[in-house]
Design brief:
Layout lengths: L7 H8 L5 E4 L4 H4 L8 E5 L6 H4 L3 H8 L7 E4 L2
Parallel strand pairs: 1-2, 2-3
Protein backbone atom coordinates (compact mmCIF):
# COMPACT_ATOMS: atom_id res chain seq x y z
CA UNK A 1 0.00 0.00 0.00
CA UNK A 2 3.12 2.14 -0.07
CA UNK A 3 2.73 3.19 3.58
CA UNK A 4 6.40 2.66 4.46
CA UNK A 5 7.56 5.48 6.70
CA UNK A 6 4.04 6.58 7.69
CA UNK A 7 4.04 6.93 11.46
CA UNK A 8 1.80 7.24 14.48
CA UNK A 9 -1.46 9.14 14.04
CA UNK A 10 -1.13 9.37 10.27
CA UNK A 11 -0.88 5.60 10.04
CA UNK A 12 -4.06 5.14 12.08
CA UNK A 13 -5.91 7.73 9.98
CA UNK A 14 -4.91 5.96 6.77
CA UNK A 15 -6.12 2.63 8.19
CA UNK A 16 -9.50 4.05 9.27
CA UNK A 17 -12.17 3.31 6.72
CA UNK A 18 -10.03 0.70 4.97
CA UNK A 19 -9.77 -1.80 7.82
CA UNK A 20 -11.87 -2.79 10.81
CA UNK A 21 -8.92 -3.66 13.05
CA UNK A 22 -5.39 -2.29 13.39
CA UNK A 23 -2.97 -4.95 14.68
CA UNK A 24 0.28 -3.65 16.17
CA UNK A 25 3.22 -4.78 18.25
CA UNK A 26 3.98 -1.14 19.12
CA UNK A 27 3.17 -1.25 22.81
CA UNK A 28 3.62 2.50 23.21
CA UNK A 29 1.02 3.40 20.58
CA UNK A 30 -1.83 3.53 23.09
CA UNK A 31 0.15 5.97 25.22
CA UNK A 32 1.44 8.11 22.34
CA UNK A 33 -1.93 8.71 20.70
CA UNK A 34 -5.28 10.14 21.71
CA UNK A 35 -7.43 7.20 20.69
CA UNK A 36 -10.81 8.51 21.83
CA UNK A 37 -11.97 9.49 18.34
CA UNK A 38 -10.28 6.72 16.39
CA UNK A 39 -12.66 4.95 14.02
CA UNK A 40 -10.89 1.59 14.10
CA UNK A 41 -10.40 -1.19 16.65
CA UNK A 42 -6.82 -1.75 17.84
CA UNK A 43 -5.18 -4.96 19.02
CA UNK A 44 -1.82 -4.49 20.72
CA UNK A 45 0.44 -7.54 20.85
CA UNK A 46 2.70 -8.00 23.87
CA UNK A 47 5.66 -10.34 23.26
CA UNK A 48 9.38 -10.36 23.99
CA UNK A 49 10.04 -9.25 20.41
CA UNK A 50 8.08 -8.61 17.24
CA UNK A 51 9.51 -11.50 15.22
CA UNK A 52 7.18 -14.17 13.90
CA UNK A 53 8.40 -16.84 16.30
CA UNK A 54 7.41 -14.72 19.31
CA UNK A 55 4.13 -13.41 17.86
CA UNK A 56 2.74 -16.67 16.45
CA UNK A 57 1.68 -18.03 19.90
CA UNK A 58 -0.52 -14.94 20.36
CA UNK A 59 -2.60 -15.62 17.25
CA UNK A 60 -5.20 -17.91 18.89
CA UNK A 61 -5.99 -15.11 21.35
CA UNK A 62 -6.07 -12.58 18.51
CA UNK A 63 -8.63 -14.74 16.71
CA UNK A 64 -10.77 -14.78 19.87
CA UNK A 65 -10.55 -11.00 20.26
CA UNK A 66 -11.51 -10.48 16.62
CA UNK A 67 -14.89 -12.07 17.38
CA UNK A 68 -15.88 -9.37 19.90
CA UNK A 69 -13.74 -6.26 19.47
CA UNK A 70 -15.61 -3.07 18.54
CA UNK A 71 -14.61 0.13 16.79
CA UNK A 72 -12.71 2.42 19.15
CA UNK A 73 -11.67 -0.37 21.50
CA UNK A 74 -8.05 -1.13 22.32
CA UNK A 75 -7.36 -4.70 23.43
CA UNK A 76 -3.99 -5.94 24.69
CA UNK A 77 -3.05 -9.52 23.84
CA UNK A 78 -0.29 -11.43 25.63
CA UNK A 79 0.44 -14.98 26.72
Amino acid sequence: MDWRGVKNGKLLRKAEGLFDVFLTADQNRTYQQNLQNVQIAIIVLFALSNNEKMLRPLMPKVLEVLQTIRMGEVVHVSL
